[in-house]
Amino acid sequence: MTRTNIALLVLIGCVAALPLFGDAYALRLGTMACMYAIFALSWNIVGGFAGYPSFATAAFFGLGAYTTGILMNKGVPLPLSLLGSLVLCLLLAAALGVVLLRLRGHYFAIASLSLVEVFRELVNNATDLTGGGMGLNIPLVSGSSVLSDATFFFYAMWGLLLITALVVIAVSMSKLGFGLNCIRQNETASNMVGLNSTLYKAVAFGLSACFVGAAGGLYAAWVHYIDPSDVFDILYSVKPIVMALMGGLGSPLGVVCGAFVYLGLEEVVWRNYIQIHSGVLGVLIILLLLFLPHGLVSLHAGKIWRGLSGRKAKHV
Amino acid sequence: MLAIQVLINALVLGCLYACIAIGFSLVWGVLNVINLIHGSFIVLGAYLAWGAYNSLGLSPWYALLIAAPAFFVFGYLLQRLLLNRVITAPVLVTLTLTFGLDLILNNAMIYYFKADYRKLILNPPTGSISIFDVVVPVDRLIATASALALTFLLYLLLRRSKVGRAIVAVRLDRDAAVLMGVDVKSIYAIAFGLGAALAGCAGVLMALIFPISPLTSSAYLGKAFVVCVLGGLGSVSGALAGGILLALVEGVGSVYLGPAHAVTLSFVLLIIFLVVRPQGLLGRKGFE
């Protein structure tokens, strides 16, 4: 295990101590932080390791949310519903991955973007099952006090983050991670030397979807009400990319740091500029891409100056 | 009769879809950038027509004359000042950059115009014509004719003018174009400006038919995606073919499956086309 991976686990361990000093607001923020970190880590499997620009995060987030929501309405307990979301997203994403990941570059980006649209419209129109545009109410889990509820969901999301991080670390150290790296650098060449790139990409897409799906399920149980335009929001697809760009593409520690920093910025912007928060987010994205294309990880002394003096960026 | 009505509707709507997509296709083909701000440009064009009509009393035809140069300059500057800096970066970077620009423009529109739906209502109304049982609203017909005219203008520009030939050359082979003395950076900016101008004009035409709201920008963008993929990138005829095909599929789909499923159907078609025939109906392979 490399030093950065240990640092990642230590960072996640530190987050677990939050309920010791936090009120309900801090817990809410902590839960969001864990959720964003799950997004960023998951996206990193396909976007960072394999180098495919995926915009499908929102599709599987929404799918997971609705799967858990529907199962819980049918009386299935929360853990089983979450497992259902996870397995469904894993299998569906792997199957879709076989087809979609044959596309490269812009074409893959557009296909994954339209996946979100397709899922949203399907959920919108399956009114009998999902409630359509009216949204779906999800029964309360514990029914006890606000604070204990918040603590429960914080630890649930944190546990999911821990599992995600362990899986991502395992992937990065395994043959799978090595294969995905090869695919990113030169897919044709890796095919030539006998790497089953279709299988690798399908597994990667499945893994990048399943934890997002489970996080969606937890989110649904946490907020008790979901509707299609909320959980299939295209912003859920873009945020992990911004986090990964912020933290540094490909590095699990980097993207988790990126997620936390992003959440902090988002919270500050929301608080102070509620009317123009998405515009401020846009400005942030542009500044980030123009001046810090390799993320916070690349910030060593000296590099900052080159970053500011408008150098010719060589991207990964 | 129903079949003919559906067909006529599809033709009328298809030309408008082509007009939406053509600027998007130009930018994608020439700059290799997926321009996510395209939808917001269209909505801004629609607001321009609405504002010109309601506060200045200018008819939408004059709004077209204002929109084209204004959007061209806007797009040209945007490309020169921002996009040219990252134009050689991978898909992810350019795509995310245009997404950021779209967030800003869309937020600005929501801030100034609010998210209410508005409608440009021509006074006196233009009515509709009916031949046998087939009914076509006149405003829709005029918008379609204008869309076709715009499309034809772009075709002429690309075919006949020196700048147009340079744009096509950059699209076919960027490096060879540089060797022939084409200033690629300024061609990029001109192509982006043209894309923006076409989006603005398309927006003016949309204002005649559809309600206007900043929230509709993603729907327009989605149409542009689908049309480009169906018809194939970078050719004017491809955009027309894609637009009409999309309108046909949506029309037939809403008659037989219900209008709620039309959007789903179009995106499913998009994914099928991407997988089976990524070069589109009329696109040629190897020009990506």
Low-confidence stretches of chain B: none
- By CATH reckoning, the class of chain B would read Mainly Alpha
- Write down the overall mean pLDDT of chain A: 85
Radius of gyration of chain A: 19 Å
State mean pLDDT of chain B (0 to 100 scale).
85
Overview of the structural elements:
- The complex is a heterodimer of chains A (316) and B (288).
- Chain A has helices spanning 3-15, 18-21, 24-49, 57-73, 78-100, 105-125, 127-130, 146-173, 175-185, 187-192, 197-223, 228-231, 235-247, 252-272, 277-291, 303-308, and strands spanning 136-137, 225-226.
- Chain A is mainly α.
- The longest helix of chain A has 28 residues, at 146-173.
- The two termini of chain A are 24 Å apart.
- Chain B has a single domain (2-117, 136-276), classed as Orthogonal Bundle (ABC transporter involved in vitamin B12 uptake, BtuC).
- Chain B has helices spanning 2-31, 38-55, 60-81, 91-113, 138-160, 162-172, 174-179, 184-209, 217-231, 236-256, 262-276; strands at 128-131, 134-137.
- Chain B contains eleven helices and two strands; from the N terminus they run ααααββααααααα.
- Classes of the chains: A mainly alpha (316), B mainly alpha (288).
- Chains A and B meet through α6, α13 and α15 of A and α4, α9 and α11 of B.
Task: Describe the structure concisely.
Chain B: InterPro entries: ABC_transp_permease (IPR001851), BCAA_transport_permease (IPR052157). The complex is a heterodimer of chains A (316) and B (288). Chain A has 316 residues and is an all-alpha fold.
List descriptors:
heterodimer; A: 316 residues; mainly alpha; two-stranded antiparallel sheet; 76% helix; 1% strand; disordered C terminus; B: 288 residues; ABC transporter involved in vitamin B12 uptake, BtuC; two-stranded antiparallel ribbon; 11 helices; 73% helix; amino-acid transport (chain B); BCAA_transport_permease (chain B); transmembrane helix (chain B); membrane (chain B); transmembrane transporter activity (chain B)
